[in-house]
Amino acid sequence: MAHAEAAGIMTGDPMIGSDRVEGTTVYDPSGNDIGKIKRLMIEKMSGRVTYAVMSFGGFLGMGEEEHTIPWNKLNYDTTLGGYRTDITEEQLKGAPSFYREDDYRWSDRDRERELHDYWRAPYYWGM
């Protein structure tokens, strides 16, 4: 049975179902709500989570934008009950959103490098 522990210490089970991650709030460095996780991108062969697609803005699902964030830019914060990132709302507004393009191929490493470089995140394939 899970019980409250000191901030930064995991409580409960070490695993979480993807359906419970979807909809989780993402907070900026100041603790402001900047969006929600909409879906996870998982590398088929390794099973490793590589990206989170995050939605922000809009009202009642209208006008919201989605951006692909490298998974290693998110850290679960037990005090907030969501993911904290160093990403700001201004960065989201100018971020590439090429995953929505009809011709986007996730196997295009140059495009992935572009995404990781924008977010200043290490490449997951080099980890």
Description:
By secondary structure, this protein is an alpha+beta fold. The protein has a single domain (18-120), classed as PRC-barrel domain (SH3 type barrels, Roll). 16% of the residues lie in helices and 26% in strands. It has helices spanning 18-21, 89-93, 109-119, and strands at 25-27, 33-42, 49-56, 65-70, 75-77, 82-84. The protein has a six-stranded mixed beta sheet with strand order 4-3-2-1-6-5. Mean pLDDT is 80; it is low at 1-7.
Short description:
The protein is an alpha+beta fold. The protein has helices spanning 18-21, 89-93, 109-119, and strands at residues 25-27, 33-42, 49-56, 65-70, 75-77, 82-84.
List the helices and strands and how they pair.
Elements: H1 18-21, E1 25-27, E2 33-42, E3 49-56, E4 65-70, E5 75-77, E6 82-84, H2 89-93, H3 109-119
Parallel strand pairs: 1-6
Antiparallel strand pairs: 1-2, 2-3, 3-4, 5-6
Labels describing this entry:
disordered N terminus; SH3 type barrels; 6 strands; single chain; globular; 127 residues; 16% helix; alpha+beta; 6-stranded mixed β-sheet; 3 helices
